[in-house]
């Protein structure tokens, strides 16, 4: 597996003379087992880069590849299918559907992938066990703490066994103890299953634990640090 961004930029034309760059001259290779963070102030371009990798937005220039397939040439439908097939997502606000149980929240993207009912159930139970929530499948999100809701979000992201997990500020809403537990869970999943993670984060607790830190300013990667 290799995701690659080659000279990628994303700009917004505010007027004939004025372009605002969300990403500029981004060159990045993502390999299996990477555990990296995009770090920078608000508005620096972290989320834009995540959205570009996910194919949620197209670059204004440059190319994106996955396993030598050029994602930038895909149609909207092809990009949506590619995202469903190869990626998992974790969000700051969890984005769980309140009317669905924990089990139903996790199984929803698996249903979109047309897995058999038995396999869906097995994958959901596996994912719940990985995040320490075995037996919680019949509960609703409102019955869970913030940390437990984030664990459900993680279970949903890993149940399809994606090649890449994109996590946007995943510890921002959590207290120190819970955030550290979630970070340890990310590390375990990375080590045990070589799951590839890219985080967008301000959280120094997470920044200190990743293998690679990419510092972004004004849409550009200005420094890369290896831990």
Morphology call:
globular
- State which percent range the strand residues make up: 25-35%
**C-alpha Rg (nearest Å):** 18 Å
Element string (H = helix, E = strand): EEEHEEHEHHHEHEHEE
Largest sheet, order of strands side by side?
6-7-8-3-9-10
Low-pLDDT stretches: none
Question: Any descriptors?
Answer:
7 helices; 227 residues; alpha/beta; 6-stranded mixed β-sheet; 4-stranded antiparallel β-sheet; globular; Rossmann fold
Compact description:
With 227 residues, this protein is an alpha/beta fold. The protein is built from seven helices and ten strands.
Model description:
By secondary structure, this protein is α/β, with parallel strands linked by helices. It has one domain: P-loop containing nucleotide triphosphate hydrolases (Rossmann fold). It has helices at 46-54, 76-86, 102-112, 117-130, 146-159, 176-193, 204-207, and strands at 2-13, 19-31, 35-39, 61-66, 69-70, 87-91, 164-168, 197-201, 212-217, 220-226. The protein is globular, with a radius of gyration of 18 Å. The model has no long low-confidence stretch (mean pLDDT 95).
What's the layout of helices and strands?
Elements: E1 2-13, E2 19-31, E3 35-39, H1 46-54, E4 61-66, E5 69-70, H2 76-86, E6 87-91, H3 102-112, H4 117-130, H5 146-159, E7 164-168, H6 176-193, E8 197-201, H7 204-207, E9 212-217, E10 220-226
Parallel strand pairs: 3-8, 3-9, 6-7, 7-8
Antiparallel strand pairs: 1-2, 1-4, 4-5, 9-10
Helix pairs in contact: 3-4, 3-5, 4-5
């Amino acid at each position: 597996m290799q995701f690659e961004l080659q000279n990628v930029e994303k700009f917004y034309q505010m007027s004939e003379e004025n372009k605002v760059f969300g990403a500029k001259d981004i060159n990045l290779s993502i390999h299996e087992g990477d555990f990296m963070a995009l770090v920078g102030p608000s508005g620096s371009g972290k989320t834009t880069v995540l959205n570009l990798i996910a194919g949620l937005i197209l670059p204004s220039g440059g190319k994106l590849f996955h396993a030598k397939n050029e994602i930038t040439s895909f149609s909207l439908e092809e990009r949506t299918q590619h995202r469903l097939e190869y990626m998992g997502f974790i969000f700051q606000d969890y984005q769980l559907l309140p009317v669905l149980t924990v089990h139903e929240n996790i199984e929803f993207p698996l249903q979109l992938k047309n897995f058999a009912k038995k396999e869906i159930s097995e994958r959901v139970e596996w994912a719940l066990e990985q995040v320490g929530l075995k037996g919680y499948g019949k509960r609703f999100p409102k019955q869970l703490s913030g940390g437990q809701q984030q664990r459900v979000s993680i279970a949903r992201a890993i149940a399809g066994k994606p090649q890449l997990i994109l996590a946007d500020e995943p510890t921002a809403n959590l207290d120190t103890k819970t955030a550290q537990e979630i970070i340890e869970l990310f590390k375990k999943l990375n080590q045990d299953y070589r799951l590839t993670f890219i985080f967008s984060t301000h959280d120094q607790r997470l920044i200190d634990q990743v293998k690679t830190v990419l510092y972004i300013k004004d849409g550009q990667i200005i420094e890369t640090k290896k831990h």
